[in-house]
Every structure is written in structure tokens, then in C-alpha cells.
Specification:
Blueprint: H1 9-22, H2 29-41, H3 51-90, E1 96-100, E2 103-106, E3 112-118, E4 122-130, E5 136-145, E6 148-154, E7 167-176, E8 182-183, E9 185-199, E10 202-207, E11 210-213, E12 217-221
Antiparallel strand pairs: 1-9, 1-12, 2-7, 3-6, 3-9, 4-5, 4-7, 7-8, 9-10, 10-11
Length: 222
């Protein structure tokens, strides 16, 4: 049954305009209650609202109030989680973190450790290093890798033995079992947290000059 049944067209328009102008076109529980009261005030004395209709509209009001209260509770919970994440992330500054990723930072001297995580034992694992332009620098192959976390060392040189400049490089991974079936493999990035970034409700860590979502962090160490 329509909530505003029993009102004249003029009364309905007046009540509706007044309510919506006060609530910025959002019908909330207070507006719902005002409409119900207006309906009772303007109902036809010769044909009043039945008990069943009144109870049904009270049930609608109760449902609306419960939904609004639930929405407010969920919003408060979300805000609390965001605040907690920001506090936790602020303690990461200066620490070393590991997370899923496909990049590695090469220093001026020395090698770079290329870390990965395998879902199963691999007969052959290949890690390809790419420069900032996406050009292949070096392909490294490892035989007989066990499932879980592992690593191999890149000496920082290209396929011709030339030392590459320091900076960030992109990695691509591929692994196959003894029957040449492809296996899932993920790269793992590690480095010191340079700073913590809060943006659009999300938390990021700046590691090796690149953003790392807080949710991707696997471990933290001093």
C-alpha cells in the first residue's frame, strides 16, 4: 500500500517538496516518519487507515531504521580499519620488508638477489631481467627448484658480460615441471621502506623507489 495514500494531490506535493528540500533529495527514516504522520493527519475520517495498513507501514519504518543503522555501523568499522592500517604502516619506516613483486634494485657494485616463490617443485625455472625500456638484459636459468621460497643471484651483468648501471630492473618468471607443464611462480621484492604514503584511503610503502601496497607485504624485519 502506498505510504501517502489518503492525501490530496496538493497536500502530497507540498509534504514531499518540504521533506526532500530538507534532506537533499535523500529519503531517510525521519522523512519516512514525517510522511506517515502527515498521512494520519490528512486521512479521510470516513475511510481511515486500517490497522493492517498501519502495522505494515510501521514495519517499513522499522526496516528502514535498521538498514540505516547497519550502514552507519559498517562505515564506522571501515573508518576504524583504515585508521588502524595507517598507524601500523607508520611503524614500517626504515625497516626492511618483503612482498610480492616483479622488480629488483641493482646497486653500484655487487650482485642482486632475485627471490621467488614456487607453488610446486620445478624441473626448470627461468628469470629474465629487463631494463627500464623493457629490453631483455639477461636470462638466468635454475634446474631442480623445490616448492616454496628460493632465490638466485644475478651478478649485475648483461648477456655479453657488461656491468649494468645501478637502478631498478623488471623481472619476469617462468617455471615448468618434468613434463613441461607450466607452474605458477611469483617474484618477491625486498628493500628498506623509504616512506609511508596515504592516498585515497589506501596505504602504500615506498620501497626501492616504487610503491608497494601494504596488503602485499609478506614479512618485516629490522
Amino acid at each position: 500500500m502506498a505510504l501517502i495514500e489518503g492525501l490530496t494531490a496538493q497536500q502530497t506535493a507540498a509534504q514531499g517538496a518540504n521533506i526532500f528540500s530538507q534532506s537533499e533529495n535523500i529519503l531517510g527514516k525521519e522523512d519516512f516518519l514525517k510522511l506517515l504522520i502527515a498521512q494520519l493527519q490528512h486521512q479521510d475520517p470516513l475511510s481511515p487507515m486500517t490497522n493492517e495498513a498501519f502495522v505494515a507501514q510501521l514495519a517499513q519504518f522499522s526496516s528502514l531504521e535498521q538498514l540505516q543503522n547497519m550502514n552507519e555501523s559498517l562505515q564506522q568499522f571501515s573508518n576504524s580499519n583504515t585508521y588502524t592500517s595507517q598507524i601500523m604502516a607508520s611503524t614500517f619506516a626504515g625497516k626492511t620488508v618483503c612482498a610480492y613483486g616483479n622488480s629488483v634494485h641493482l646497486e653500484e657494485d655487487g650482485p642482486a638477489e632475485l627471490r621467488y616463490r614456487l607453488s610446486d617443485d620445478a624441473d626448470r625455472l627461468t628469470v629474465t631481467v629487463h631494463d627500464a625500456r623493457g629490453q631483455e638484459v639477461r636470462a638466468l636459468e635454475l634446474s631442480g627448484s623445490s616448492r616454496g621460497d628460493g632465490s638466485l643471484v644475478w651478478d649485475g651483468k648483461d648477456a655479453q658480460g657488461k656491468r649494468m648501471p645501478s637502478g631498478n630492473y623488471t623481472l619476469s618468471f617462468s617455471a615448468v615441471d618434468a613434463e613441461e607443464n607450466a607452474l605458477p611462480v611469483q617474484g618477491i621484492v625486498s628493500g628498506a621502506v623509504e616512506k609511508v604514503i596515504y592516498e585515497s584511503g589506501e596505504v602504500y610503502l615506498l620501497v626501492n623507489g616504487e610503491r608497494m601496497p601494504l596488503s602485499d607485504v609478506l614479512e618485516v624485519s629490522e
